[in-house]
Design brief:
Blueprint lengths: L4 H11 L5 H29 L4 H21 L2 H9 L6 H15 L5 H8 L4 H24 L1
């Protein structure tokens, strides 16, 4: 069966479901904003109620958000939320936690070493690698700019 590319594109476009872009963007904005608001509330709680320093409160807030995102991923709830909220769940810290936990869960049947240990950073690994590399490159650029 020989179908021309243009003819196939018309067929696929006619049968593909339409994507409600505006609605998806609003959901992503609201859920992402909600996650950030919860993070800010946690920081206030840890700083003003418990009495931690700003730095310690921020660190504990990050740890709490990572823990909650990992727990929700493990329970299968993060994926259900992400299907509705889209990119809003990718607020860096919660999305990163999910990107580490999900491959670990998927590969646990292969064992702790060859499964979880080998595949835990398959999604997050490139982010860590290139984020660290970009930070190092910019550090050198700023250092050189400081010399001049």
């Amino acid at each position: 069966m020989n179908i021309e590319k243009e003819s196939f594109k018309k067929y696929a476009d006619a049968h593909a479901p339409s994507s409600p872009i505006v609605k998806d963007c609003i959901w992503a904005f609201c859920i992402g904003g909600l996650i950030c608001t919860v993070g800010q509330l946690l920081t206030f709680l840890y700083k003003d109620v418990i009495g931690l320093t700003q730095k310690d409160a921020g660190t504990l807030c990050s740890v709490t958000l990572i823990f909650v995102a990992a727990l929700l991923s493990g329970l299968g709830l993060f994926e259900r939320i992400a299907k509705k909220a889209g990119g809003g769940t990718l607020v860096p810290i919660t999305g990163f936690a999910n990107s580490v936990v999900s491959p670990a869960i998927d590969s646990k049947a292969e064992g702790l070493i060859l499964g979880v240990g080998a595949k835990i950073f398959t999604v997050a690994g490139p982010v860590l690698l290139y984020g660290t590399l970009a930070g190092a490159v910019w550090g050198v650029v700023y250092w050189i700019m400081g010399i001049w």
